[in-house]
Amino acid sequence: MYLRNANTHIDFLIYEKFGKTPCFGIEVDGYNFHKSGTRQSKRDQLKNSIFAKNNIPLLRLVTNDSNEYEKIANFIFGERKTAGSFYGNP
Fold this sequence. Notes:
By secondary structure, the chain is α+β, with helices and mostly antiparallel strands. The protein has 2 helices and 3 strands, in the order E-E-H-E-H. The radius of gyration is 13 Å and the shape is globular.
Protein backbone atom coordinates (compact mmCIF):
# COMPACT_ATOMS: atom_id res chain seq x y z
CA MET A 1 0.00 0.00 0.00
CA TYR A 2 2.73 2.48 0.99
CA LEU A 3 4.87 1.74 -2.05
CA ARG A 4 1.90 1.96 -4.41
CA ASN A 5 1.11 5.51 -3.32
CA ALA A 6 2.00 7.96 -6.11
CA ASN A 7 3.28 10.46 -3.51
CA THR A 8 5.80 7.98 -2.10
CA HIS A 9 9.38 8.73 -3.05
CA ILE A 10 12.96 8.97 -1.88
CA ASP A 11 14.84 12.23 -2.47
CA PHE A 12 17.97 10.53 -3.81
CA LEU A 13 18.51 6.85 -4.54
CA ILE A 14 22.00 5.83 -5.62
CA TYR A 15 22.07 2.52 -7.44
CA GLU A 16 24.49 0.33 -9.36
CA LYS A 17 24.60 1.04 -13.08
CA PHE A 18 24.40 -2.63 -13.97
CA GLY A 19 21.57 -4.49 -12.33
CA LYS A 20 20.02 -1.33 -10.83
CA THR A 21 20.65 -2.60 -7.30
CA PRO A 22 20.12 0.21 -4.74
CA CYS A 23 23.30 1.20 -2.89
CA PHE A 24 21.87 3.81 -0.51
CA GLY A 25 19.30 6.57 -0.19
CA ILE A 26 19.42 10.18 0.95
CA GLU A 27 16.41 12.01 2.40
CA VAL A 28 16.27 15.75 3.05
CA ASP A 29 13.76 16.41 5.81
CA GLY A 30 12.19 19.82 6.39
CA TYR A 31 12.52 20.69 10.07
CA ASN A 32 8.88 21.57 10.85
CA PHE A 33 7.31 19.09 8.45
CA HIS A 34 9.15 16.08 9.87
CA LYS A 35 8.87 16.84 13.60
CA SER A 36 8.32 13.91 15.93
CA GLY A 37 4.65 13.02 16.28
CA THR A 38 3.55 14.34 12.89
CA ARG A 39 1.99 12.24 10.13
CA GLN A 40 5.17 12.72 8.12
CA SER A 41 7.27 11.50 11.03
CA LYS A 42 5.26 8.27 11.03
CA ARG A 43 5.82 7.93 7.26
CA ASP A 44 9.53 8.54 7.84
CA GLN A 45 9.61 5.71 10.38
CA LEU A 46 7.91 3.43 7.87
CA LYS A 47 10.43 4.40 5.18
CA ASN A 48 13.28 3.76 7.65
CA SER A 49 11.82 0.32 8.32
CA ILE A 50 11.51 -0.51 4.61
CA PHE A 51 15.13 0.50 3.96
CA ALA A 52 16.37 -1.42 7.02
CA LYS A 53 14.46 -4.59 6.08
CA ASN A 54 16.03 -4.43 2.64
CA ASN A 55 19.48 -3.69 4.09
CA ILE A 56 19.76 -0.38 2.20
CA PRO A 57 21.54 2.40 4.10
CA LEU A 58 19.61 5.68 4.41
CA LEU A 59 21.07 9.07 5.27
CA ARG A 60 18.66 11.69 6.61
CA LEU A 61 19.57 15.36 6.53
CA VAL A 62 17.50 18.16 8.06
CA THR A 63 17.13 21.57 6.46
CA ASN A 64 18.09 23.53 9.58
CA ASP A 65 21.43 21.77 10.06
CA SER A 66 24.88 22.40 8.60
CA ASN A 67 27.92 20.43 7.37
CA GLU A 68 25.86 18.50 4.83
CA TYR A 69 28.84 18.06 2.52
CA GLU A 70 30.85 16.47 5.33
CA LYS A 71 27.94 14.24 6.40
CA ILE A 72 27.35 13.04 2.85
CA ALA A 73 31.07 12.42 2.25
CA ASN A 74 31.38 10.48 5.53
CA PHE A 75 28.29 8.49 4.64
CA ILE A 76 29.48 7.62 1.13
CA PHE A 77 33.15 7.00 1.87
CA GLY A 78 32.89 6.00 5.51
CA GLU A 79 30.86 3.40 7.29
CA ARG A 80 27.26 3.29 6.10
CA LYS A 81 24.72 2.34 8.71
CA THR A 82 21.21 0.98 8.47
CA ALA A 83 18.22 3.15 7.70
CA GLY A 84 17.60 5.96 10.14
CA SER A 85 20.61 5.23 12.31
CA PHE A 86 23.16 7.51 10.65
CA TYR A 87 21.12 10.56 11.47
CA GLY A 88 19.22 10.09 14.70
CA ASN A 89 16.02 11.80 13.62
CA PRO A 90 13.34 10.54 13.17
